[in-house]
Please model this.
Amino acid sequence: MAAARKLPLSGFMQKNGPILGTGLLVAVGFWVAAMIVLPQFFMLDFSFRYNLPLPQQGGPNDVYTLENYRFFLFGSPTNPDPFNILDLAVFLRTILSAVLVTLFNLMLCYPIAFYLAQMARGGFARLLVLALIIPFWVNEILRAFAFRILFGATGMVNTFGLSLGLWDQPIDFVRADIALYAGLGYAYVLLMIFPLYNAIESLDRNQLEAARDLGAPWWRIHWRVVIPHAKPGIASGCTMVFMLAAGALAAPQILGGPSSLWFTQIIYQWFNDGGNWPRGAAYAIVLMTACIGFVLTVMRIFRVNIGAIGR
Amino acid sequence: MSADVELDGVWVTFGDFVAVRDADITIRSGEFFSFLGPSGCGKTTLLRVISGFLEPSDGAVRIGGQDMAGIGPNKRPTALIFQNLALFPLMKVWENIAFGLEVRGVPKAERRRRAEELLDLIALTGQADKLVSELSGGQRQRVAIARALAVEPNVLLLDEPLSALDLKLRQHMRTELRAIQKRVGITFIYITHDQGEALTMSDRVAVMREGVIEQVTDPATIYNQPATAFVASFVGENNAFKGRISARSGNAVSVETGLGPMQARLTEGPAQALQVGDETLVFIRPESLKRLANETDPGVRIAARLVQEEFEGTIRHLVLHGQDGTHIKMSVMNDGNDPGLKLGDDVLIGCRAELAVALPPGGLAKEI
Model:
């Protein structure tokens, strides 16, 4: 009995009973294995194989290869350039754009989150939260099309700007990718606001007053008191927005200019139009690894603990 | 540098609720001044008005003669110590102390030097690089004081800063605070509901009730010559006997009570309006009551029966019942001698007329 007590599981079983306990374990186990580990594992496995027709799969030609990763870096054997410039450029631009969207989102959401967490009172705060949430009842694709209409040549933004005389010719917001950035930014507003709100809300209001009382102007109160306190929330929100923006597909498809391509669209093309699942898998793995690496590096630079973003 | 703080007819209202009613006080430069009152009496509101977090609804606040209207808390020559201290948990001790200097653009080396000087002042030498969470409650208390002193305020405002400490530390910090105030020589304005803190530390005390300042004077006068029934009952223990004034000559009055006639005196303030025939409350402190020999008649003379006794080391708390059933509290110093009283004994107790204070009824702090 004494030995059994040391197992963490036996305590868990005692608390939940054998039926519920087993049920929970199976459910969590299934979720982790079938929803997280196995798909990623098959994707990883795919990415190291040749794109063989169905009859040959599992045959003598079905061996592991780095060919798909080589292709991402250097392109087809007939490629005259030393690197696969087309795909690499799209890749870098996607990462960079995702960073820009994230920063834009942070700047937009921080004041809102601060206002909600520290200043707004009762009914008005609830109304504001509702106003933030309701647009997300609309389907993501519909929202993207709404942005397209908004930013179109005869859309509201252009009509407004022209009638005020801010500019004298319709601006092609779609070609300039402004529609895309705005759409992506808007899509993840809530994912940024809620972690920020949670972090800022837990800040003791007396700290703000103490800093103010000691003579600090508002920007220094934020710089020295609010932002350091909210750092885990900022990291959490930025990570989510960056990951989702870099991995977005619908918004770039609908709002992207004709010349701009999002890296996910290339992945989609390999899977769908190209029918080359192994190559698509390799591209997807590259994107995922790069995003995770990027996030970890940034967190390291800003000294945020990985555990902190779970809070 | 130190400065007077003048409250000139200050009112604070929230909708229909009057938090502070016509506060009119001058707190003198270099003074240790306390606002004493139960929670909800408006003392914290008044502190927020002085520090600038709240604008008065009417009236003016002047510090060093200068009207503070429209001047924010970051621009006033005051520093506030919060009830929960509000130290910055992510900064080191010295960064906390030097925050006000950082705001003023003092270079880092100079900030560090000033912080270490202040750490010496509060007897925390060598703790500069610790985090606030590594300090004990009393040490944090002192860091909060140092942080406020670093900006060299003319007035230091303290909002019940000792309430979170345990009893022993609280008593120690009283002495400490008083010593720091003497050393730096600036005006301290202290908010508390603890009469012990207010009486031991302050030069003067203002007792507040429901937004009204009832009495402003030195601690001994507050205790010995309360101006209102509220002050008499809120500060210290007291007995209150209902009665009617039967004669008045100057400040000496005779009062008919359920326990027989009592001689008492009137204090300065509202009591001066009492006339023959008026209802009154006669206040006698438990420690003023003594056992009387049969023949003496010192002014107040009550026949009572001992019903309860509590022994508390230095003092015995006795509860007696008067002939009409009135509860009477009496405390006797434990001088080592057996008081020679048993439960159920009938005794004569009383005190001199100067120790009995007759005040207009109304506004008792608690059932006594």
Summary: Chain B touches chain A through 26 residues (CB under 8 Å). Chain B has nine helices and 20 strands.
